[in-house]
Write a structure and sequence with these properties.
With 273 residues, this protein is α/β, with parallel strands linked by helices. Helix content is 56%, strand content 10%. The chain has a four-stranded parallel sheet, with helices on both faces. A two-stranded parallel sheet has the order 1-2. Helix 4 links the parallel strand 3 and strand 4. It starts with a helix and ends with a helix.
Length: 273
């Protein structure tokens, strides 16, 4: 997932550090832009098993069957109260953020095992540790990704295959704008009791009116954590990025649920009025 933001920054940072990078994107114009920048970009739609198989074949052909690492960054955020989301919308969130990601990973694990090791980095989120109201299904997909990563880290450890999780907080990317667009397309806001709240919420996401905007870091900050996970002899299990990510990780472990609920309710009231 290298069309923009974290994926694009990571591809550039890794190339500067001497890695051979095969960035993927779904849209042809994004692929063309990556190729203009000198990348050997590969088409990949993680919602399509056929596309995943083709992409894996192309990468292994280009790399001579060798692979140092896989960075799973493709994903999107589906906003909305849980009651307003259709089954199709919820399924799509998991298809992109978990099922497609894991199908791709499973096809590459035999390569890592045969060559004696490798690195897998999964891009999660701080909301994969603490569920965020009105982003509940996105949080659920990231909670699931965290669980899968934890399980697979143990399963693959005998084969010297390391699995790390990156937990960004607010990052300066198109995520917020894309999130607002997804919500407007998928939600029937007119029938929702949160209709007026959605209007304000999407406006803030587009115009930089979110409370967490003050803590945003550039995508290169995430790329540096990914680089460490790929090159360190002792990669961390989890990497927090931004102050809110560190605070969220700490709160998930040490703060009582009742207090978290009160903090979330206060947060929602401030955000939606």
């Amino acid at each position: 997932g290298c069309s923009s933001g974290i994926g694009r920054a990571t591809a550039e940072v890794l190339r500067e550090k001497g890695w051979t990078v095969y960035p993927t994107a779904r849209k042809e114009n994004d692929l063309e832009e990556l190729r203009r920048e000198g990348f050997d970009a590969i088409s990949l739609d993680v919602c399509s098993s056929e596309s995943i198989v083709e992409a894996v074949g192309m990468v292994l052909e280009k790399s001579g069957g060798q692979l140092g690492a896989l960075v799973n960054n493709a994903g999107f955020g589906m906003p909305g109260a849980i009651q307003d989301l259709t089954r199709d919308a919820m399924r799509q969130q998991f298809e992109v953020n978990l099922f497609g990601l894991q199908e791709l990973t499973n096809l590459l694990i035999p390569v890592f095992r045969e060559q004696g090791g490798g690195r897998i980095v999964n891009i999660s989120s701080v909301v994969g540790r603490i569920a965020l109201p009105f982003m509940g299904i996105y949080s659920a997909s990231k909670f699931a990704l965290e669980a899968v990563s934890d399980a697979q880290r143990i399963e693959l450890s005998p084969d010297n295959i390391c699995v790390s999780i990156i937990e960004p907080g607010p990052i300066s990317t198109r995520f917020s704008t894309n999130c607002a667009n997804e919500g407007e397309q998928a939600l029937d806001t007119k029938k929702s009791p949160f209709a007026s709240a959605y209007k304000q919420y999407f406006k803030k996401r587009r115009n930089g009116g979110m409370a967490e905007d003050r803590f945003r870091l550039p995508p290169e900050a995430v790329a540096q954590k990914i680089l460490h996970a790929l090159e360190s002899p002792n990669p961390k299990v989890r990497y927090c990025v931004t102050l809110t990510s560190h605070l969220g990780s700490w709160a998930a472990r040490f703060v009582p649920v009742g207090l978290i609920d009160r903090m979330m309710l206060s947060h929602v009231k401030k955000r939606f009025g």
